[in-house]
Amino acid sequence: MSNATVRWIGGKQFIGIDSTSHSVVLSTPDEGVGMKPSELLLVALAACTAVDVVEIIAKKRLHLDSLEIRADGEQDSDPPWTFRKIHVHYTLRGTDLTETAVKQAIDLSEEKYCSVAATLRGVAEITTSFTIEAA
């Protein structure tokens, strides 16, 4: 079972700790110290799919030099500022990457493996795009 603990450390600053004791600092934008909690959700989505895409590309025996994922979210303008649209853009660099292989890896992650995408899908429309850069 997954779990997380959040500890208040003063002001509007918190420490989030996962089940393996890794931590992240969280705060409101005016504190300027940690990540915004709502944007941590975008980081979680990007990280979840990153793990999948790297693993799928490796299983295809393709060479991946780098991967960067940007997640942009549109939120409602009123509380609770629910995310309604999230666009995920992948920038991959490798010597033998093909559009077909990359698209398949992204689709498998989004539709089958990424638990964060599966959780968000009922609330937010998730779209994707990608760019392959020469190594």
Overview of the molecule:
With 135 residues, this protein is an alpha+beta fold. The chain folds into 2 domains: 35 residues; 98 residues, K homology (KH) domain (GMP Synthetase, Chain A, domain 3). 33% of the residues lie in helices and 37% in strands. It has a 3-stranded antiparallel sheet with strand order 1-2-3, with no helix packed on it. Strands 4-5-6 form a 3-stranded mixed sheet, covered by helices on one side. Helix 1 packs across helix 2. It is globular and about 50 Å long. It starts with a strand and ends with a strand.
Strand and helix map with partners:
Blueprint: E1 4-10, E2 13-18, E3 23-27, H1 37-59, E4 66-75, E5 83-94, H2 99-113, H3 115-120, E6 125-134
Parallel strand pairs: 5-6
Antiparallel strand pairs: 1-2, 2-3, 4-5
Helix pairs in contact: 1-2
